[in-house]
Amino acid sequence: xxxxxxxxxxAARPHRARHRPTPIPAIDPVALTMLAVNRLGPATLRTATxxxxxxxxxxxxxxxxxxxxxxDEMQKTRLxxxxxxxxxxxxxxxxxxxxxxGKA
Length: 104
Known about the structure:
By secondary structure, the chain is an alpha+beta fold. It is 45% helix and 12% strand.
């Protein structure tokens, strides 16, 4: 009988909600690779041939961090990759291609 009362009292007690951190949504590696090839590839090629600085627009800050890390690694073999800047754009239609820094 004692075990029954203990179980009843534990079930009747208000439980505290545990704070669980919200998980970060996973990035699709295929989509990220396609985005990197489509945006970073032409920009690095243009900076290597022309020597002019370019900006590459990406949709969010997390992707920008990944692109910047990739550029940091690529700079070890091609110094012209320092000329590529990554910026975050809010508008979906803007930033499909790299643009010259001097032009906006």
